[in-house]
Amino acid sequence: MAIRFELPQDEMPEYWCNILPDLPDKLPEPKDISGKSLEIMQKAMPKMDVVNEFSNERLIKIPDDIYEKYMHVGRPTPILRATNFEKYLGGNLKIYLKMEGYTYTGSHKINSALAHVYYALQDNAKFVATETGAGQWGAATALAGALYNMPAHVFMVRTSYYQKPFRKYQMDMYGADVHPSPSDFTPLGKELLKKFPDTSGSLGMAISEAMQYALDNDGKYIAGSVTNADILYKTVLGMEAKKQMEIMGEDPDYLIGVVGGGSNYGALAFPFLSEELQKHDIKRKYIASGSLEVPKMTEGEYRYDYPDTAMMLPEMKMYTLGHDFVPPAVYAGGLRYHAVAPELSLLMNKNIIEARDYGQEEAFKYSVLFSRLEGYIPAPETSHALPILKEIADKCNETHEKKTVLVSFSGHGLLDLGNYAEALNFK
Amino acid sequence: MAIRFELPQDEMPEYWCNILPDLPDKLPEPKDISGKSLEIMQKAMPKMDVVNEFSNERLIKIPDDIYEKYMHVGRPTPILRATNFEKYLGGNLKIYLKMEGYTYTGSHKINSALAHVYYALQDNAKFVATETGAGQWGAATALAGALYNMPAHVFMVRTSYYQKPFRKYQMDMYGADVHPSPSDFTPLGKELLKKFPDTSGSLGMAISEAMQYALDNDGKYIAGSVTNADILYKTVLGMEAKKQMEIMGEDPDYLIGVVGGGSNYGALAFPFLSEELQKHDIKRKYIASGSLEVPKMTEGEYRYDYPDTAMMLPEMKMYTLGHDFVPPAVYAGGLRYHAVAPELSLLMNKNIIEARDYGQEEAFKYSVLFSRLEGYIPAPETSHALPILKEIADKCNETHEKKTVLVSFSGHGLLDLGNYAEALNFK
Prior knowledge:
Two copies of one chain form a homodimer.
Chain A: E1 4-5, E2 15-17, H1 37-44, H2 47-53, E3 59-61, H3 64-72, E4 79-81, H4 83-88, E5 93-99, H5 110-122, E6 128-132, H6 136-148, E7 152-157, H7 158-163, H8 165-173, E8 177-181, H9 187-195, H10 203-216, E9 220-221, H11 228-234, H12 236-248, E10 254-258, H13 263-278, E11 285-291, H14 296-299, E12 301-305, E13 316-320, H15 342-349, E14 353-358, H16 360-374, H17 380-383, H18 386-399, E15 403-409, H19 417-423
Parallel strand pairs in A: 5-15, 6-7, 6-9, 7-8, 10-11, 10-15, 11-14
Antiparallel strand pairs in A: 1-4, 2-3, 4-5, 12-13
Helix pairs in contact in A: 2-11, 3-5, 5-6, 5-11, 6-8, 11-13, 12-13
């Protein structure tokens, strides 16, 4: 029995899905307290990113050039059926996984990186600049830069740069300029280093440094999650999944995934949710999870807050632990963000999307189990979705119902094996 | 234009291809100088491995259970067309890549690991034991063990165990018992450690330790290259590639790849070569390359030699640098083997397969170039095939001929980024 379902490259969907016009309420506007942040955002980011951020079109055509590049980085990705894991959970679930680890950078991040870099190129930017923590986003930016022949400056949180070098090496292979942030490459970085000589860096510092460097040198700053535009670009994966499921004759009862900033889960869920919101009839269940160590999903407040710890960007209404929340050193680096994307937050607030948070120990128990049963090593972030499957399976085993689940499987864990080894005490 | 060509899972070929009956001469018999080595081999290895080693059937049916497991580790793998690299080389080549990096362990090794473990299970072995250097084979054995619920003991060359831990962590995720060889886990290991307390280990020691441990404890020893049976099991990839090319309406003028022991190149080439040998009409060009630092392909002698530095196995006639050849520390660990598989050696000796050797510096220049043009990071071993493409392209650019090339792209380089960083001086 086949357990992998491909979509041929010439059947890849031609549109991104924009949830904005179908949200049950109007999305609260960004708030520009300083009076400068909207202007900074508009100057720093590619023009079309700002246009797409506020678009009311339901479907936005993927530019031909991005479409072609999607094929060149591993799109469409397959859907796998996790038959061994199904058996382990009692046999009442059909589990389908939308596998973003099949992209060449190993996660969903490349889907929006290509779009941001393409639009920066349209603006005649001299380069793109961005920040990265664990490195998935930096690697995606580096590859997008390589394929568009656009220089990429990646400001990588100092401690990750030195302690978790594998994703940095991946960026090096792709030819990006990777700087340990704060860096002595920019005036702002030098200033920060002088002020805090022993700093291990932070995502906030790295964002400031990247944005300032872009503003000062005719570059464009690009951001890899949270914004409406970024989620929009990633919906190519959800559009694919919807088409794949339709071809298979399947319709998921549950759509599940993990939330760092929210772009991966939104990317899968929105194409399904959009049609349900239009009909005012939501039959599918949407459940997303985060890290219990960074419990924004279950303990965050729904209020205005800065998306960036540097407070350079406009405030947005979202579930947040506070922009100054200091996340503990969890190994799922992509889940350390303090807030949930505004679109997802609104849907959570309307009880359309349910939230969960799981501890690292529980999630990693499933990483090991899944690797041994299915052969595919999940990213630490991705494994936080697996306890939701257990919850659904337990319910089905009680009621003897059969259900179909579609999981946004955000990436593979091959470059995270060092983290697994530390957390699981491999000798 | 689509650049990826899939074979649906239910169209995966059902047969392995055995080249033995179609070789231009009878393959020289193994030579049992000690009078014990054949017996040791027969006792240590799975019974069906020994049967398949000497089979004269052209096509051998893949057992249903292995066929199903192939689907569960990422088979069939796609063929990609390297359109950007084609342009770089002048536009006269069509370059098709058979992508074994799409298997879950990241290389072609899993294709035979599943078969060896399956046959060990048929023999009611208590466990399988094997050696590994760089770790691709160990990782494949670990996953095969996990999927068959068969304990796996991997004896990993001591220096790799400590210095290149990522593939070891991969084996840990799959639940294998990984021992730094020589290890204090076996009597032979303890003896070796007592004799050479500061040893960094060697593949020879690791083979001895694994084989002895299997012989003494009702396990089976499995080997991941060189033997006829091992190449046979891997031909699933070549059988797929042949079917894929036929569906695409393409026929390669050149079949190229790299040789460590020879199983990856043989696996791709044999299904194509087999039909040509049967017709006594060889029109396609077969070119394989190795490492100039381990120049067995171009400087090896065609003579009887031990396949293992431990001299436990029967001698075989092959191109060899001598079983006591000490390979330098090249980063393409999979190319450090001292000899070429007997079947390939015979075909090289008959000038049916041409040989090349390329230096690490040249190969890695192509790794970087290829990563930036195509987005896919090749394994260090795989990149040694890329200079052959340049050679063919140069010829075509002179004569204005168009040619089609099929490359055995043995794996991805994500777990080799540390080696790339060292060799290429990433900061």
